[in-house]
Amino acid sequence: MADLASALDRTLPVPLGIQLRGLIEFGISLGEMLPGQKLPSVRELADRAGIAPMTVANVYQELRKSGLIEAKPGAGTYVSDGRTRDGLRSSAMRKIQRRIDALFNEAEELGLSPAVISSLVNARAARGRPPAKLMQIVIVGHFLDTTQQYADRIREHLGPDDSIAITTLSALQAGEPLPLPCDLCVTFPHRRSEVENLVPANTPIVNLSFIPAEETRARLAIIDPMAKIGIVSIFPEFMALMKPGVLRFTPHVSEVEVRLITEPDLIEFLKTVDVLVYASGAEPILKDFPDGREAIEFRYVPDPHAVRQILLPEIERLRSAHSAKEEKTE
Question: What residue stretches are annotated with the HTH gntR-type domain (predicted)?
């Protein structure tokens, strides 16, 4: 939590309150701030960061409204445990997995092959049940290209006949409908409340955390120690987070500067750096970046642990609920 205060950068042209909100929002999105984790009190964080308590109080109020954090009377402020239900569901899945393992171990002791047990289990699952529902999933992101990359990663974990489509927050805000009838919507934790207000009522929504892509981490790690790195961010609230995010993989580099994509001196700034690290969605600036220099997209991918422990159990829960509903109507 001390990193929240130390990561605020007074050299950036972004108010400290916006930086603080972005640090917390993105920390939750990346799974670095976990559900149930306690936040510093308003006074404590204000003292550490050297900012007005009212600034911290306003940030906390905005985050509470968006459902990312929650105040517990007499206990303090915590990262929202809205995903607790998903965690419990994941725990139940692990419990069943252990029982399945025990079943196959017992079968082996009795001389029965795994194929025989699999056939029995499949027959039991199919007995008197309708065909499994094919799920239609929509991912809501910021930019079409990067959201499609998220969808491609997630598709690897889905059933062969399940559908996955993409849209953007700006498209929904412009009144565009979802690209297909949606059984489940996937988005960033810090955008969930906005998405809830833009999709049909009662649409299930899952928060998914993200991590830096392996290629991004590898390319940052081999940057020349003497190089000057220029970082370009799209969203003001995430400027304070991009610099430590890059430095995490380039601790050997000492000269790093950050700019917002809308700053008037951006083109001149690009001419002064050896390596450009840019946020996904900022590709248009590459036309102004000198030839022969390295440009690295700071790209994120869905956290595979979150996919397995949160998204997939929710998909199976919805699939099972639909099957149970079909059974009752027969």
Answer: 14-82
The values of phi and psi at residue 175, to 5°, are 95, 5
- Whether 315 and 184 have beta carbons less than 8 Å apart is answered as yes
How many domains, in total, are found in the chain?
Answer: 4
Q: What is the pLDDT of residue 92?
A: 57
Q: What span, in angstroms and rounded, lies between the C-alpha atoms of 186 and 205?
A: 6
pLDDT in tens, 81-95: 754 444 444 455 556
Q: How far is CA 47 from the centre of its chain?
A: 30
Q: Which two tokens stand for residue 55?
A: 């600034």
Return d(Cα 295, Cα 148) in angstroms, integer: 21
Instruction: Provide the pLDDT for residue 256.
Output: 94
Say whether 202 sits in a helix, a strand or coil.
Answer: coil
pTM flag (> 0.85)? no
Residue 230: inside a domain: yes
Provide the pLDDT for residue 98: 73
**What pLDDT was estimated at residue 130?**
52
Is residue 23 in a domain? yes
Angle at 313 between CA 312 and CA 314, to 5 degrees: 90
Owner of token pair 């402020």: 77
Are 6 and 73 part of one and the same domain?
yes
Between 215 and 128, name the one with better pLDDT. 215
Residues 186 and 325 in one domain: yes
Burial 271-290 (b: 16+ CB within 10 A, else e): eebbbbbbbbbbeebeeebe
Beta strands, E only, 172-220: 184-187, 205-207, 210-212
Stretch (H or E) spanning 295: strand 294-298
Query: pLDDT tens across 249-287, in order?
Result: 999 999 999 999 999 999 999 999 999 999 999 999 999
Centroid of chain to Cα 137: 16
For the chain, the average pLDDT equals: 86
Are 186 and 246 members of one domain?
A: no
Q: Quick one: pLDDT at residue 242?
A: 87
Same domain, 292 and 178: no
Contact between 62 and 16 (Cβ < 8 Å)? no
At 226, the amino acid letter reads M
Report yes or no on 131 lying in a domain. no
